Structure formats: structure tokens, C-alpha cells
Amino acid sequence: MKLTHLVFALASAGLMISAQASTLIQNVRVFDGEKNLGVRNVLIDNGKIINADFKAKISADMKLVDGRGRTLLPGLIDSHVHAYQDQDLPLLYGVTTQIDMFTAVPLMQDMNQRMAAGKNTRNADLISAGVLATAPGGHGTEYGMQVDTLTKPEQAQAWVDRRIAEGSHFIKIVMEHGGAGFKFNSLDVETVQALIKASHARKKLAVVHIGTFEDAKAALAAGADGLVHLYIGSSISEAQSKEIIALAKKNGSFVIPTFSVLESMAGMKSQDLLNDTSMTNLLSKTQVIPLNSSYGKQENQQWMTAPNTLTAALHAAKIPVLAGTDAGNTGTQYGISLHHELASLVNAGLSPSAALQAATSAPAKAFRLKDRGYILNGYKADLMLVEGDPTTDITATRRIVEVWKDGEIISPLRAEKLAQVAKEKAIKTTAVQLPSDGRISLFSNEKLASPFGFGWVPSNDAPMGGKSTAQLKVNVVPELAQNALHIDATVNPGFAFPWAGVAFFPSTQPMQAVDLSAANTLKFKVKGDGKNYTVGFTMQGSFIPVTVVFIAPAEWTEVSLPFSRFKGMDATIVTMLAFNAGPETGNYAFDIVDVRLVKE
Fold first, then answer.
1. Torsion angle, alpha carbons of 14, 97, 24, 31, to 10
2. Which residues lie below 8 Å from residue 416, measured CB to CB, with a gap of 6+?
3. Residue 52 near residue 30, CB atoms below 8 Å
4. pLDDT for the residue 11
5. Would you state the pLDDT for residue 316?
6. 3-class SS at 334?
7. Where are the alpha helices (DSSP H) in 253-324?
8. Which residue numbers delimit the NADH:ubiquinone oxidoreductase intermediate-associated protein domain (predicted)?
9. Residue 361 near residue 293, CB atoms below 8 Å
10. Is the pLDDT of residue 75 over 80?
11. pLDDT, tens digit, 9 for 90 and up, residues 309-368
12. Which of 52, 53, 65, 62 is nearest to 3 (CA)?
């Protein structure tokens, strides 16, 4: 039966999801997920690739797409995300599938239902681990979500079975002890091994988050199917690389380096993306903030030596390397960051074609996704059309012409988002009128007031399940002719990044944004116990402040901080200014006075 007759018959029977005409992408260079096949015609219909090498007669009802000078790719797969917000973005950048390493169970279940019903054409598919396996007080427990934790191997099978019952596609396990300034409890090797065994007993993949070379070795020796990170480091020996390769080969394991987040830890930004307005014009102000920030306060490119060297060695040894960004973290953004990740893989020594494999066929194989990652007959019509040839120039993936999700074009979504962002940029915000001296600290025993906004309040990590406390008291400082705010802070274990201090809300309602662009510098006077503290601004859409460290010396000292010191700050959407002790635990005492926002 001819295709057009079949479509008519199904429609008459009421079985069609859509009566959309078939689409023929003509004269297009095809990268099929593994290699460049040269110029072909590709026919898609009813959400599937009907013919990946169409040579028959063109019918009148086909929608024709000109592929000359362009390349057709499988929809990209980001192999490491945390999909808790901004899920309008991935498809706009050609990411049609996300492998999620930890998100809320209701969100995962909703996505599972939509995918099963074939009603997920406006979002990237989500293949999720749901809740991760971690120890009490371990990595993953610091986000304010209730997490089902483990302490011993005997709990492993029941834990895995609970995840499968919730709808998890695979099992994510955490081996993480923390770093400078913060520590995590971690699962022991015996429990990790038991979790992997329990996952395999239910025919589920078990992947492991690691933070060091030793953890990577231990996870692979325990039988991990994949490492979902590499780690930063200024060196790695050839012998160490060989150890990892030998263990990975023994298990048939894959590795997701996650350069995007490792670079953020090394104080580096994805400047190639930030400088490309054709990419960033799809991001709202709040969506730019995480991309324009970094975990590391100082850039240290040497820290990328270990992941670059190890990735090159893994690829040379034919260990599957997958492209994953860890989007949802500082220094990353959904969809857009995968294009930087591809460039980072090429920088590490992969060819452009190998990098494309790492974002298409390799993750499809690794995560057992048998309907995507390739341009093959019968596969999902999740496709991306780009100008140029990304098999020779990896940055060509950024020149997106069209994206298809389950056979439906997403260009209307791109146009809609472009219009939204343009409208946001066109709105002229009114900057808060600052007092002539810029002073925002009007402290008295009656009220911790300010000339605008909600005012000053104690701040601590209790909303995140922490146990830190802050006590505020106003003292008269005759020599400064002002009242100072004295903060006694006790920073206790309980949250991974504990804090206690004082916060100023510039809006009349806490966590609403205001425009502070009338100033470009924060000034204040401080004295205290000689310890390090942080001062930071929080922006709309984020709960993680951009911070600068300062010292509270024994004598009053003025601190002057240009806004440019606060990496990623957008002064037009500030929700909070905070002075905090932590994350080192202990008792702290400091005083602040004469806090000013000024133009210099």
C-alpha cells in the first residue's frame, strides 16, 4: 500500500495523531549518528523517519525542505542534566532528549506519561534516574528536597526497587566526599557495589557520580556501567589513565566528562556562547545568569588538564565518551551548553564526527534508547538541520535552520521565544532612586530599616534543612556617627554549604526583583573576628548568590566592591543582598555599618 493511501486509511479509522503531510528534506548532507553519508533525501511522516535514503517520486502532498549546503543530524542528546526548570530551552537548541541524573519524582512521572502518550512534542524527552542514591548528609541532600538515603549494602535492593516503582529509567549513585570548604558524607564501596548489583538484577543501568580519581577507580571496580563526571585536576599520570581505561574496558563502561560544569569549577565561562548573540538571543535575563557565572572565583585553566588528558586517552582506547553538560548548575544552561560541550570534546582531542557521535548514537547506545540517536528508517523523527558541515567544523551545530521533535517542527517555538526575549529587552525598567549618599543601612533598636525595600532580616540555611543560626544586635558607634549591626553567627553542620548572617531585600516583598542599576559599587565598613565572610547579590530566577569574599578585621575597615567583581551579576534584577558567615562551621562575630550603593 502506498504511504499516502495508508495515511488516508488510518485517518478514516480515527487512528491518526496528526494529519500533517509528510516532509521530504532534499539534497541534504546526512550525518546518521556515526558518519557523514553524503547528500541524500530523507522522508519523515507521522513522527518517524520513513525513508533515510528516499529515491522515489515526489508526491504533491509532501512538504519539501531545501537541504542544499546544510547537514541533517539526529536530535542531540545531553547525557547529563538536572531538569528542574527552564525546560523551554533544550528543543530550541536542537536537544531533543535529556538524560536526567536527579530531579523531582512528580516531574519525572509527568514526563513519563507524556512520552508514553506521544504528547511530548513541545519539550525534549526526559530519560531520568529520578532520586539518586546517596548517604545521609551526602551530595544530593543539600537542595531542600527529601531524599531516600542509604547507609548499608543490605538496603540496596529495596532502594532500587522503590526507584523502579516510581518510574526511574536507570539508577544514579553518588560517591562524593566534597572539596575545599565543604564536606559530604559518601556511600561506602560495599554499598555502591550492592546498588550496582541490585540494579543489574532488575536489568537497569547503574551510573556513578565521582569527584576524584580514587572514586572513579572504585566505582568502575564495583561494576559501574558509566561515570557521569570526570574531575578537575592539574595533572594525571599515564599510569592513572591506563588504570581507568582497563577498568572501563573490563565492564564495557562509558564516561561522561561534563566539561561545561568542570570548566565552571575551574572559574571558566563559556565565553564562546556568551559572545554569540545568535545563541543567547533565546535566553531571558534570568536564563543568562547561570551561563554567565562560574563556581570557581578565579580562573585556573590548569585544572582542566586531568579531564582533557583522560578524555583523550579514553577516546583513543575506544571507551565510549558521551556529551553531557550537567545543565542546571552554575556555568551551564539547558540546550545551549551542549554546543559548548561539543567544542570542548573537540578541544580535548575528539574529531568533530566523534564529538557528534558523543551527542547522538553513543548516548543512545549507552542508555539503551533503541528509537533515537540515528537517522534510520523507523526511528523517531527527532532531527536537527544546520547550515554548513559540523563533521568538519563543530561550531556549525549552532547555525540551526530547523529542529523536528517527533516529526513536528519547532521553529514556531523559536519564533515565540525570540519575541518574548525581545519584548523583555524592550521593557524599560525604572531603577530604584537611591539616597544621595547611597546609604541603605538605617539601623536602630526599633527597626533594621532602609530607605527603600523590605529591609534587613537574619538569614540562615534553615530553609534548606540546615541548623545554622544568626543573632542580630544594634550597637552605637560614636566614632562613625552611625549605628552598627552586630551579627553573632553559628554555622553548624546540616547543610552542605551552611551559612548564617543578614540579608537585605530591596523590594517591598522578599525575593521580588528590583533595578539597582543606578549604582555600580557596593561599599560598607566592617570589623570583627578576623575571619573570612561573603557578601553577595541574588538575582531573579536564582537562589544562588554571586559572591565576593571579604575579611572582618579587628578595626573598622571600608570595603569597596564594584559590581563587576560579582561574576554574572545583573543589577536590573536583584532580589537580595546578603552578608554571611560560612561554609566553614563554627562561631562567628562581625559588625557592618554604612552600607551604601553608589555610582563611581
1. -150
2. none
3. yes
4. 34
5. 98
6. coil
7. 259-265, 271-274, 277-280, 285-291, 305-316
8. 456-567
9. no
10. yes
11. 999 999 999 999 999 999 999 999 999 999 999 999 999 999 999 999 999 999 999 999
12. 62
pLDDT per residue as tens digits for the range 251-301: 999 999 999 999 999 999 999 999 999 999 999 999 999 999 899 888 999
Quick one: cell of 346?
Answer: 573537540
| pLDDT above 70 coverage of the chain, percent | 96
Strand partners, 63: 23
**Bridge pairing between strands 383-387 and 400-405:** antiparallel
CA–CA separation, 229 and 226 (whole Å): 9
Whole-structure pTM value: 0.88
C-alpha grid cell for residue 69? 549546503
Please tell me the CATH code under which domain 442-598 is placed.
Answer: 2.60.120.430
Q: How far apart are the first and last CA of the chain?
A: 76
Q: Which fold has domain 75-373?
A: TIM Barrel (3.20.20)
Q: Dig out the grid coordinates for 428 from the structure.
A: 524599560
Confidence of residue 56 (pLDDT cuts 50, 70, 90): very high
Using CA atoms, how far residue 6 sits from 13, 25, 63, 322, in Å, is 11, 21, 17, 39
**Cell numbers given for 351:** 574529531
Q: Return the domain boundaries, the chain.
A: 75-373, 442-598
User: Under DSSP, is residue 144 helix (H, G, I), strand (E, B) or coil?
Assistant: coil
SS3 of 416-445:
HHHHHHHHHHHCCCCCCCCCCCCECCEECC
- Spatial CA neighbour of 72 closest among 403, 364, 328: 403
pLDDT computed for residue 143 by the predictor = 76
- Judged by phi (left if over 0) then psi (alpha if -120 to 50, else beta), residue 135 lies in beta
Q: Which residues of 557-594 are buried (b: 16+ CB within 10 A; e: fewer)?
A: eebeeebeebbbbbbebbbbbbbbbbbebeebebbbbb
Helix (H) / strand (E) containing 219: helix 213-221
Count, residues in the chain: 600
Task: Give the torsion sign (CA, 99, 105, 107, 110).
Answer: positive
Strand pairing of 400-405 and 557-562?
unpaired
Q: Which helix (H) or strand (E) holds 357?
A: helix 352-358
- C-alpha distances in Å from residue 94, one per residue of 307, 395, 527: 26, 13, 52
Q: What is the pLDDT of residue 568?
A: 83
CA distance 248 to 219: 10
The amino acid occupying position 393 is D
pLDDT tens for 160-206 read: 999 999 999 999 999 998 776 667 889 999 999 999 999 999 999 99
